[in-house]
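Contributing new records

If you add data, match the layout below exactly. Sequence lines come first and carry their own label; structure lines follow with theirs. Keep one chain per record. Anything else will be rejected by the validation script.
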Amino acid sequence: MRRFLVLALAVAAVVFGPAELNAQKNKKAAVAIEQRMPVIGVSAKAADGGGSTNMTYINAVRRAGGVPLIIPMTGDSLQIAAVLDVVDAVIAVGGEDFDPQLYGEQPVRALGEVVPARDVFDLMLIRMAVRSGKPLLGICRGEQGLNVAMGGTLYQDIPSQKKDSFVKHSQKAPGTYGTHKINVDPQSNLCKMLGGKTSVNVNSFHHQAVKDIAPGFKVVATSEDGVVEAIEMIGNNKVLGTQFHPEIPTAAGSDEFLGIFKHLIELVKETK
């Protein structure tokens, strides 16, 4: 096989000449780059040693036309920088509570499980991704991490800290089923991703939420009791956080939130 390739290249060089051969190589390389599927980095969870994530994130990326690549937990900025050189966009996924000391508060009694090593990893990944200009989608904890990383704060526990909240934000129904309504800003990028819808039902698996919005960000969706359900970076359509989990129905075959993941893919294609 190797001898055949050498012979073929030699014949091509005679027929086309060195300049024509190089031009063909460059054209093929350009086509290969153009046709390459976008690689979407998906942050790992703390479970299983920090090297895996839920398949719903993986399959949602696949449905949108991307190639998912799990980013293992690490506190090494050089490793994260190397990964960001490889991936085209980043998804920061859900999971445990953030240590409230990261935004200047002491823990309340209702605070859930905290994994300091994951806090370090997620906040570093989010800050470096935003700084590099990579498209970023934060989901649930990922949205909360985006807010904390950029200077915002959280409700450590909605039931005990947000007294006017009346919506059940920790559902017992399947994740494919939306248990409460959110209102979406009609001028937001999220609204465009949802096909112009300003009201949708979403799933809900959290007891923490964005409290003080980070500088440079805006709230673009809320539940009926005023809990923040989505945030966007002002003047930047590449950075979005959702408190709900759009990946679960998307991975199951629903198109209702597929536009959120397709938006990531389109952003990548626009930059190629």
